[in-house]
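Chain A, query sequence.
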Amino acid sequence: MAVMAWIGGGSAAAETLYVGGDISVLQRYEDFDVDYYDMLGTKIDDVLRYMKSDAVGWNAQRVRLFVDPRQLSPEGNTDAQVCQDLAYVVSLGKRIKAEGFAFMLDFHYSDTWADPSNQWTPAAWAGLNDDQLQAKVYDYTKECLTRLVDAGATPDFIQTGNEISYGMLWGTYGDSNAKKCYSNSPAANWTRFVGLLKQATKACREVCPQARIVIHTERAGDANATVDIYQRLAEVDYDVIGLSYYPFWHNSLKTLATTLDRLESSFPDKKVQIVETAYYYQWQPAKVAYNFATTWPVSPAGQAAFARDLIAELKKHGNVNGLYWWFPEENGNGPGSKVLTGWVNRGLWDDNTHCALPALYELKEFLNRKETGLTTVRHREDSPQWYSLQGTRLPTAPQRRGLYINKRGKVLF
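Chain A, predicted structure.
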């Protein structure tokens, strides 16, 4: 556990940290009787229970939810991974909660993959105007959460949208008037986006008042863009900034650190979670935005080294309290099964042998964050000179709450 101590007296407060994965396809694999083995080749009878065991040590899981995944994808092809309708998520969510995990629900608000390049309105909602769409988001969110609560699968974290860096529910696929939210988009598009999020979070607060709401974006490689997005969403009621970070798309750990520092100084009241990360253990594509194969070889050992280095960096940032590996349950295709149309090769089980990879056992180290490098103070008249996180010297002690540099360390004032 991370401990944030008060200087000059007062009580110490412990913070819960979360580590796990997005296991949205696990139930699909189980339906096809795909076998899982530990690193030594011993068969695992219950993968969820094994993830909770001392060997792995996870305490959280994430699952996505599509509106109607029976719809064809925009390209006209069905995708075996796009199977997470409400019934599927209720079933898997009940198991997650029964095993004692924290449960993060990831609303996609789409019939298929929602990401920065694809935020298309579900087919059944296509004819709705903006006011009707806001009402639909509220009703749908409330209905889904009510079903989960009634089934004993109450989420602990709720993402109101997946990688919504450029807005969500843009309109019909390919529409030239898609209501995207870039930095230079019309103000009306951003107003519409904020309105949709407000309705989603309103439903979350009503049905799951104890859950923490996550706004998830995918610009971890650009600190300025990330801060700009969350500044534009200042009117939205949420608790956690969720980031995707894949080094082959978002650059180095140093780049990530810059983004985390900027989020600390700009939004000191928000926690940050890396809700998606992964690294290749074999067959990295020939073309990636950033190739770190010389730093972390594309091998099981290189993947584990990436996990260790990522955790070491996250431990330096006191506002980061969550880490999720994306698609850790990837495990190839069993005999005759069609779980995947192609291997992604970033999971934590070997697609060929079905044996666990070393990185699976590295992630629990995130929970052993005894030192965060962060000190919280109420007030110190005798403090030496203060600086911003960007290195600017302040003329006086800080005048508002935030993160600063004092005595060569980060301080939450």
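Residues 5 and 146 are 38 Å apart (CA to CA). Residues 1-13, 371-383 have pLDDT under 50 and may be disordered.
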